[in-house]
Amino acid sequence: MVLHRYWLHLSTIVLGLASPSWASFENTRVTRSVDLGGSLVYTTTTYNVKALEDGSNVYLFALTEKEQETTSWMEAKVKGHTAPLSLENHGLSHDATYYYSVALPKALDKDQTASLVLETVQAHAAYPFPPEAAQDDRQALKYDTDLFVLSPYKSLTQTIRFNTVGFPILGYTQPKEVAFTTGTIAAKSNSGGAIVFGPFSDLPPSSNTDFIEKHQQKISIFYEFGFPMLAIRSLRRAVEISHWGANLNIQDEIDLYNAGPKLKGQFSRLEHQTQVYQHRQAPHVLTELALQLPAGIHSAYYYDTIGNVSTSHLRIAPSASQGGLPGRSSLLELRPRYPLLGGWNYSFTLGWDSHLGDHAGWDAEKGRHVVGVPIMTLFGGAVVEDAEVKFVLPEASTDVEVFPPFSPSSFSSAMHTTYLDTTGRPLVVFKYKNLTDKHTGIIYIAYKVPLSAHLKKPTAVGIAFFSVFFVAFLWKRVDLNLEK
Ligand SMILES: *[C@@H]1O[C@H](CO)[C@@H](O)[C@H](O)[C@H]1NC(C)=O
Ligand SMILES: *[C@@H]1O[C@H](CO)[C@@H](O)[C@H](O)[C@H]1NC(C)=O
Ligand SMILES: *[C@@H]1O[C@H](CO)[C@@H](O)[C@H](O)[C@H]1NC(C)=O
What we know:
Belongs to the OST1 family. The chain has helices at residues 8-18, 65-70, 209-215, 269-277, 458-465, 475-482; strands spanning 25-35, 40-51, 56-63, 71-78, 87-92, 98-108, 113-123, 126-128, 132-133, 140-146, 155-163, 169-172, 186-188, 194-203, 218-224, 230-242, 247-258, 262-263, 289-294, 297-304, 312-315, 329-334, 345-355, 360-363, 368-374, 383-392, 398-403, 410-416, 425-435, 442-448, 469-470. It is mainly beta. It starts with 7 loop residues before the first helix and ends with a helix. One 2-acetamido-2-deoxy-beta-D-glucopyranose binds next to loops.
């Protein structure tokens, strides 16, 4: 988990003392829906809760060890509300469960109810099964999980539903000797693209070793997936800001791979061409990518280790300053130099320029520039295992303040000098792990460029720069400044 790892140790101790008697709620109903994808699996769990005592305001979510290991993003809300609740990670408890708490916006009195929604994205939770496939085989994946959603509270009913994106479920584990039910345990939908386990009734608190040992069961869903399993091993974004040319350059170095089944036997280009020609291309062969880039960009380039690649198509949307509607994106369709089979890698570099005014604003109150850049190029359904975003600020910038949309796993700053610079350009680097398509957002960075910068001595600038302020979660304030 990227987001909350800072909490782990301290909170484990605190919760360890308080844990067993948090019986201030009961779940009247728990329903989990799991959207089975490729590299990413999305879960949504709705907890209908009832307070058992007055003033109940802290609710605990429980994750199994396996869920904790794969969960890369999570968000909790009161159903129907848009503002997320702040989730606090309490780490691993003695009963083999990870707890997250939320404070309800309003405490509940006895018998009052609320509906809470917990969404998560799991990375690399599904895997190719079998691990190898012939060129004309379909792509089948397997997802392993637990039958019961854990909770420290009693649950009157519970169901768990698995959905594919329109492809058939090929098989599943039939749980045996399941308690808490008298009827059917597993029922597949008529279309074959969904399966429901449950309902189970009158479950005692389940996030404890006693329940887990007696009742928890592993289940697997085996399903067809009709898209390539795209994963990004690393994405290094470099952002270079130049006030001289009023230019912002973004360059992404991308190492991607196909996490789908490995090819059984030899790759046949003839068979591949035939499949393409007949529009029945193997889903486990990646042949093209469609990427959304910012509006109003120009001079886009795309090259790999061999050289320029011309098989790409870019449709540029006008930026707001060019009269375009806000929120539009340009679309880049590109073809890797070769079709990418399961286990194959492809590295390439993608870059473009933008008019600086499309990304920058002037904070008049503080007399500084503010530049906002998306944290990454989104690859739908893919996990970015290692991400880096590096800003190269204008020469002699001072008073640098950064506002990332969520905390990085590491953050550093340094001075970058090229032979043209006399004083050097401040460099700010953010690193992240396991970003998903829910990790959207803009990194804002504020800095001053003194008019007299070119007169100052390098040492003076160096000292000023190293007072970089790290301020997460305050970006909204800056956002307002940009809209002026
Ligand atoms: C990233 O995800 C992988 C696979 O789910 C996991 O093994 C790894 O621990 C995660 N890394 C971090 C820093 O969360
Ligand atoms: C790619 O093409 C552009 C012009 O189209 C050229 O300026 C650049 O040097 C080429 N890069 C490589 C790596 O071949
Ligand atoms: C892809 O890259 C990974 C990591 O660099 C490497 O272990 C693997 O062997 C590569 N796969 C192929 C088919 O070259």
